[in-house]
Every structure is written in C-alpha cells, then in structure tokens.
Predict the structure.
Amino acid sequence: MKTLTILSGKGGTGKTTLTASLAVLLARKRKIIVADCDADAPNLGLALGLKEKDFSSWKEVETNEKAVLDEKKCIGCKKCLDVCNFSAISWDKKKNKPIFNSMLCEGCGSCQLVCPAKAVNLIKVKNGKIGSAKTKYNFNLISGQLKIGATGSGKVVSLIKEKVMKEGKKQKAEIILVDSAAGVGCPVIASIQGSDFILAITEPTPSGLSDLKRALRTVEHFRIPYGVVINKYDINKEFSKKIEIFAKKYKIPLLGKIPYNKEFVNALVNLKPVVEYNKKFEPLFEKILEKSLEKLKNMK
C-alpha cells in the first residue's frame, strides 16, 4: 500500500474539500481506504455525506493519562506543585495537601517522578473514540474524535493510522488517503508519519504562505516528498504568483491551482464532494490526482 496525505499549514484552506473529491475520483480506479486524522475537528465524514449513525463501530480509546493523588501517602512536601508546568496543581491550605485538576493535567508524569512518598499515580483515561463507516462512493472511512476538554489528539491520530493500516491490509487496498490535521503540532506529525507523498494545499494569503512554509519544514524533517496545490488562486493572483515563485525556487512541484467558486460552498452545504455536486470540476481534480499518483508511483 502507498499512503498519500493531504496537508495544510492552517485551517480553512480547503484540505478536506480536496481530500473528499480526490477520494471519490480515486475510488473509481483503485481500491482505497481513507483516514480522517483531524481528531480535534473531524469533518471529512460530513463532506462525504456521512452521519453519526453511519459509524456503527465507534470504540472508546485510552491514549492519555492523568495524575491522581493518594492522600494517605502524601506528606505535603509541595514538590509536585513546584514542578507542574500546566498549573494543574493547587494547594489546599486547610488539608496541607495538593489538589489535582484533571482538566488541566497533561499527564506528563513530572509530579510522579519528584514525589518522594510515591503518592502520585498516573491512570489511563478515555480521551477519544475511533470508528469506521462505509461511504456510498465505494470506500471505507476511518475517523477519530478527541473528547471535549481532553488532550492527546496526536496519540488518537496514531491509533487511527494503526487501524487504517490494519483495515487496508485486510481489504487489500492499494492506496491509503489521509486527511491530515492542520498546522504543525502533534496531530500533524502523527498524520504524516509513514506517508509516501504529501500533497500540501495553501491559499494566496500571507498567512497561507507562511503556514505552508512551516508545514513543509515539518515534512522535510521526515524526508517525505511533497507537492503543492493553490486553492482559490484567483482571489489574489499577485500573491498566487508569489507562491508559484517560491515553489519554483525550491523545486517544489506545483500540482494544481483551484479557482474560487461558490459551488464549493454549495457542495459542502449539501454534504457532497464538489466533483459529485457539479461534474464540471472533475477534470480539474483529475489532473491534480493524476500528477499526485505519478509522484506516488515513483516513490520506493
């Protein structure tokens, strides 16, 4: 199996819209499986017309830990209070003991390490869920979601990737298509690891280009080949030209330019990939897909 990952340096650039349309077109030619790795805001299912009830196999996962105090063992030394960088520990003057805030705790374990009385324990917590659904476009979608207020989205994404690899092998899929989280944080790192080619989408704005550069530096750290697509290129043709110049300077393949069109919004409102909502966009996305597959083909 080869893995093609769609990435964006910031939210709102059209990453999920691009993924949905490429998935529909790709499924007509190859056996594929798709992963929504944006555990903080998983919207790919919506773009494909899926509803909550379509995910029949949601399973809660425990990928994070929280610190819990054993008050009987606590000697009130305050070492845990001094070492916590997340303000998750306060002090109860009456009891002369620390108070642990589970909502602020990141489960780093520093408090446990410094506690001389071994009064701090790290316990597993259910911080997310993972499920799969069959789309009407002849492929399965594996998705995950972080619980509200929970942490550890990067670890949830890692479990999504593990599940999609397992299911992909079982279904004898040729290609895994990944809708990455946006940005450069832990979920993104987990999303892109193991990818064979990255398709980075950006928009013609200063923040779009700046965040694209940051995202590509992350990709380069893992030595993964990549190409770029400019979305809504015609809303600022001058800045689109700057992105093209940047790509040419660093020999980054420009795999396509997508124009601004209200039909894209209408497609999302109607919960359909734009290539299904309006067939006139098929040739545009077909070209992007063909170029991406050619790059993917050349990867060892």
